[in-house]
């Protein structure tokens, strides 16, 4: 899931990022989400409100993997970069099914 929040493109970026400037209004944030949707991401794109409550609660600073079901966190990975382990998520999902 891509969360469109104020943490998009301020200060650093990966080489394949879409360049989106800091949002100052919800309308700008919604427009930024549309730019991301046009890139056809392989995950849902959701928009945080201007308080960035979702990013502050679930943000990956440093990165962290979560599995959610029915709006509840059922798996929370260790903090990255050293604890970031996609195979741990895979193992959880394989046991969960």
TrEMBL record:
It comes from the Eukaryota. It holds the Pfam family T4_deiodinase. Belongs to the iodothyronine deiodinase family. This is Iodothyronine deiodinase. The keyword Oxidoreductase applies. InterPro entries: Iodothyronine_deiodinase. GO terms for biological process: hormone biosynthetic process; thyroid hormone catabolic process. One of its GO terms (molecular function) is thyroxine 5'-deiodinase activity. Responsible for the deiodination of T4 (3,5,3',5'-tetraiodothyronine). It catalyses: 3-iodothyronamine + iodide + A + H(+) = 3,3'-diiodothyronamine + AH2; 3-iodo-L-thyronine + iodide + A + H(+) = 3,3'-diiodo-L-thyronine + AH2; 3,3',5'-triiodo-L-thyronine sulfate + iodide + A + H(+) = L-thyroxine sulfate + AH2; 3'-iodothyronamine + iodide + A + H(+) = 3',5'-diiodothyronamine + AH2. Keywords: Oxidoreductase, Selenocysteine, Thyroid hormones biosynthesis.
